[in-house]
């Protein structure tokens, strides 16, 4: 019987993958048979992440893991990551836009507009740019799957991270537009986590993990592996009739009517 979740022979590019959710996604896709390129800004952290992925998820096979340092906001870095992926693996059938930044909290009336532009440039414009590059380099002629990492903050106002939430709302709409334009050969979906236990999200549960998680029906915060397993399914043939969707993965918090702040 064919295993529809097997990714053997496929190549994936995951942005922002030196730690947290991106790193977990890289490990999940490797465990399903894919080869992966990981990108991030800091070369030393990225190299250490690649080494760990080789030793663990890739079973010691260094030929299946490529690390390309670079800033997602840089046109040159984006092009290099895509080009090197195709050169190394001969294809690029999976793109995971995981990179996201959030240097602004609180009052929009006090928000620095330069920082607002940077958030949208990194969280939205760079994601589209990566899709364009992957499309031209491989997916236009061969098909593929794109996953955009959104957030529950893009689905409901939080009051705490409004600019980040607005950028993720834009990414959700971008996902729908891309799914419409790129079908049937390319599927495009988003996942929208709430608070996941990563360095990036530490401020959202700084008052105490137990106190924050008590509001969730499942009584815990997310782990990077929770998101990675969902992404692994969505990029596989088991999800072949799913496109244009934003899948919430939030421990049930939005079902309570509470504010999402992922």
UniProtKB/TrEMBL annotation:
NCBIfam families: PRK07231.1. Belongs to the short-chain dehydrogenases/reductases (SDR) family. InterPro entries: NAD(P)-bd_dom_sf, Sc_DH/Rdtase_CS, SDR_fam. PANTHER family: DEHYDROGENASE/REDUCTASE (SDR FAMILY) MEMBER 4, DEHYDROGENASE_REDUCTASE 4. This is SDR family oxidoreductase. PROSITE patterns: ADH_SHORT. It holds the Pfam family adh_short_C2. SUPFAM superfamilies: NAD(P)-binding Rossmann-fold domains.
């Amino acid at each position: 019987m064919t295993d529809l979740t097997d990714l053997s022979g496929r190549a994936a590019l995951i942005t922002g993958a030196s730690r947290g959710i991106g790193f977990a996604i890289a490990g999940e896709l490797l465990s399903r048979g894919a080869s992966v390129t990981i990108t991030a800004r800091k070369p030393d952290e990225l190299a250490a992440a690649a080494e760990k992925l080789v030793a663990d998820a890739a079973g010691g096979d260094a030929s299946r893991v490529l690390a390309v340092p670079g800033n997602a906001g840089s046109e040159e870095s984006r092009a290099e990551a895509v080009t090197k992926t195709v050169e190394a693996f001969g294809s690029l059938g999976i793109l995971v836009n995981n990179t996201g930044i959030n240097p602004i909290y609180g009052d929009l009336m006090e928000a620095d507009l330069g920082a607002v532009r940077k958030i949208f440039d990194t969280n939205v414009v760079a994601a589209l740019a990566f899709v364009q590059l992957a499309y031209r380099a491989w997916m236009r002629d061969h098909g593929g799957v794109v996953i955009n990492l959104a957030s529950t903050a893009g689905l409901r106002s939080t009051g705490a991270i409004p600019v980040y939430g607005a950028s993720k709302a834009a990414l959700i709409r971008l996902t729908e537009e891309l799914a419409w334009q790129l079908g049937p050969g390319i599927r495009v979906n988003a996942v929208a986590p709430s608070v996941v236990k990563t360095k990036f999200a530490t401020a959202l549960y700084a008052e105490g993990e137990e106190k924050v998680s008590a509001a969730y029906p499942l009584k815990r915060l997310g782990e990077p592996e929770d998101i990675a397993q969902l992404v692994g399914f969505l990029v596989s043939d088991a999800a072949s009739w799913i496109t244009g969707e934003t899948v919430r993965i939030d421990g049930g918090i939005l079902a309570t009517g509470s504010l999402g702040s992922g």
